[in-house]
Design a protein that fits this description.
With about 375 residues, the protein is an alpha+beta fold. About 15% of the residues lie in helices and about 40% in strands. The protein has helices at about 5-15, 20-35, 40-50, 55-60, 120-125, 230-240, 340-345, and strands at about 75-85, 90, 100-110, 110-120, 135-145, 150-155, 160-165, 190, 195-205, 210-220, 220-225, 240-245, 250-255, 255-260, 265-270, 295-305, 305-310, 315-325, 330-335, 350-360, 365-380. The relative contact order is 0.10.
Amino acid sequence: MDSYEGLLNKILTKYPEKTQEEVLRLVERRKEDSHGLLSDVGAMSLVAQALLVQQDDLAGLGDQKISNAHAGLNDVTVSGEIVDLSELREFPRQDGTTGKLVRLRLQDLSGQIGVALWDMNADQIIQKGARVGARLRLEHGYTKHGRGGEVELHLGSKGKVQLFETSNAKTSDEELPWITIGELAESPGPTARKLRLLMRRVQGQRTVNGPVTALCEDETGLVIVKFWDDKTAEAARIGEGRRVIIGNPTVAERNGTVYVNVGRNGILREDDGSPATSFGTASIAGLKPDPLLHVLSGKIVERSEVREVETREGRRVKVSNIRIEDETGRMRISLWDHHADRAEALRLGDMIKLIGVKVREGFNREVEASSVFLTEIEKSG
């Protein structure tokens, strides 16, 4: 086993841009996360494992750092780890052909970037069994501004995908330190930690290789968790209303919202410990844009008719806008897809509770909210 100094020297040799102080801060954070269970050498080993694993096998000499990507590049090659992955989506084009799209989020040591794989590359990534935690090399892509002004990498007909696998996760959660939903935004990417969650709502697989998706909660917040690979059947079996412990999750942020992925290297088991504490309802006046989901309640004071809009992928979706009021203020909420259908049954003066909504800044800089796929709407009174 390498010594403490030997591991430190390996890291500094591999990453000459890092200072010794930066590496030692990472080691101290690992020790703090373990609540005193890790020695100096053990913490340094985890840092070295995270920084050194498979970099030589993955990255080529021509690869760019993700942090250096900007809109307008025409021949981009990057390597990294998948931290979020969508299902394959098909849509009709104006010329009568069928387009295909897979979106993912890729992370290297410098940062993260949203990726759109089109047509042949979308098919290929699904056929190769790509999953959260796998490593990719994406060649000959181009960059442009996407939704919200974020730089995106696109792979079209000239692009090439190489898929690698990696597995360094612990198979038991006994040694993993705890983390809460409220701390997830500070821990992007794969994290050797565990969470205790209540699975409020569970949605089964929509495609053969797709995830089981759950709206999960602890006392600090709500988040969408996607269960992949061998965890799909277990998540579906456990079902709604049950407490679980998940370990070795991968945390991703897409369009300003945090998601948690649990795949082949992750841990999922029912929790026989103390009951999970529910996350409370927020006051409207105290809300600000947040990557985590919230609970809102109030009286409907405005409601628009349901209308259809077209997304940038060519999908037609329904939307209805309502405005609710509590004792502290008012907020506009956009209800999408099947939630828009539900809005047709709502009336002015109805008291409702919305569990799992995204709070964001609107076009006029007003704080507003929107439903996500697993948002729950409860009507009372």
